[in-house]
Amino acid sequence: MVLETLIRRSELGDIYDKVVAGQRISDADCLRLYQSRDITVIGAIANVVRERKNGNYASYILNRYLNYSNICILDCQFCEFGKKKRDAEAFELTVDQMVERVRHDLALGITEVHIVGGLHPSLPFGFYVDMIKALKALDSRLHVKAFTAVEIYHLAWLAKKTMPEVLATLREAGLDSITGGGAEIFSQRVRDLICKGKETAEQWLDCHRTWHKMGGRSTCTMLYGHVETLEERVDHLRRLRGLQDETHGFTAFIPLHFVPDKTQLAHLPPASGFDDLRNLAIGRIYLDNFDHITGYWIALGLKLAQVSLSFGVDDLHGTIMEEHIFEMAGGTGGQQQTREQLERAIREAGRIPVQRDSLYRPIKVIETPNPAPAEATV
Ligand code: SF4
User: Angle 125-138/163-173 helices, nearest 10 degrees?
Assistant: First the structure.
């Protein structure tokens, strides 16, 4: 009651009243949230939405990442993952190598494989189709989540097909979801500065729109903390909320901070914990038509991800074996969590852990701690 009174008397009290009343906040409200330094009030407002939508539950998934190749024709300034064929760190996996890795992790209990790569100059479209088919052949229940919208356009160019034709062919092969990467910041001013030549915001949105209209679901992201303005962050969220109103196809919003360390933008300061928490919280408040906000512990580190469960976040993503994109940029969030570590982090934050599937549906509510594992698990 005391906290509520303090929030109502704060500079953001009118936004709190709107949220409590279930009203949508405006773009101007969103900008005011970004301009405020009152992270406690922003977090408390986000928590109202978080608990209304997801109660006291916080989810995670058992998953693994898989990068088929980091060879890329583009040279985004924020990216250290993409390499040229001649570079020593360039790699390509065969379909058989991917199958072996996933076979191993299926035995450990994963329910999802998350696949992205660079925009490879010469791998034929058939390689991607065969990859999906081979992974689904391992276990038809395995959820194959693969490719950013940017990769889908690249495959269309390689295969001389349209973007909807590529999506339809991949779906036929067994693709279950597309990933939310490649959105960066939608502003063309920013895209020209940090990822010249990449697909436009309209193309990114149109790919997800097409996928949603085919009955598919996807996540969406925002890469923040580089050269974008606060107004451009609001514009990005506005476009995501608009598409969600139209299709209801996004399962979750996953904001990602830019890691400058080893990139061409290494002179920029890294995002602060304050900025991480406010992006998550503002995403939760503004995106009223999204069911879930994911705190990506690979970027945040598990400790801040745990705190984010009180700032609008209701999902900690997954066990995430073998992440390379943040790691190669100099990220220090860590590699791979066990299910016990995720559950402990959630429980310590006062939330109830839930193992979920790729569409954020609960598989199992973990009411009591699992016994210590007899052997390694993911
Ligand atoms: S962000 Fe993606 S498209 Fe850009 S250079 Fe890196 S791998 Fe290539």
Answer: 30
